[in-house]
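Hi P.,

Sorry for the delay on this. The queue was packed all week, but I finally got your sequence through. Input first:
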Amino acid sequence: MALSLRQLRRRIRSVEGTKKMTHAMEMVAATKLRRFQSALVQSDRYIHDVTRILSTLVREKPLAHPLLEKRPEIHSSLVFLMTSDTGLCGSYNINVLDTLDQFLEESGDPKTISFVALGRSGAGFLRRKGLGVTHEMTIPRPQDIDHTIKEMAQIAVRHFAEREVDQVFLVYTRVVSLASLKPRVEKLFPISGEHALEEKTSTVDYLLEPTLDQVLEVILPEYVEAKTGQCVRHALVAEQASRMMAMRQATDNAKEMIDSLTLLRNKMRQASITKELIEVVSGSAAQKR
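Then the structure:
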């Protein structure tokens, strides 16, 4: 059905309002992204150094620490799922949930897996599938991120140390670059020298004081919290990057629609003016006859 000039004008104003909203959301996401990126860079550096030290210590002397224990049989697992609270972030949540689905297919019986959901989208997905959610958390405000990370690390340590679960996984989106966001599954527990060390580094002989056991009592919980924090910050950066790109695409689409509607409006106005001119000329010619 053809639109009238009035309807076209209303539609153009509506799309212009949508464009302003998506552009504002893009700017907000870009601001949050820069803040989270700065924290992520610091987190990556810190976890790299902690991982290197821990890997060297574990290789040097295997210890019977609860967090280093390898269970001969796996009876249950704990999975931390990190998604967003809200939408308008492109395929961010869908990609993470697809990765989780693949993990569940490979893991066997989902009933042996309990979940901790960070983000309402993931919590809703788990409830719809009838999976056991032990804790639900919302995406923290910037000033509450450290508290949320500490809480998640404490949950992981408690469940594994008390033998409630035999392994712990983190499902999140890793930021390779702003144009490359890779959902992945990482094992947090049990910790081993090979698992903790992701890159080959030279062996360093440390002079330890007090004992190695006492050092590990401090550094192992620190490693768990740092590793959890790194994954959370990657997820936060990935969410804002996805939202920024989605809103930028929406803004570009709105611009194209406005241009198309404006061109159609101008054609209709030109046709209307031409029709009126023809009527005036025809009437004048008829009067002369």
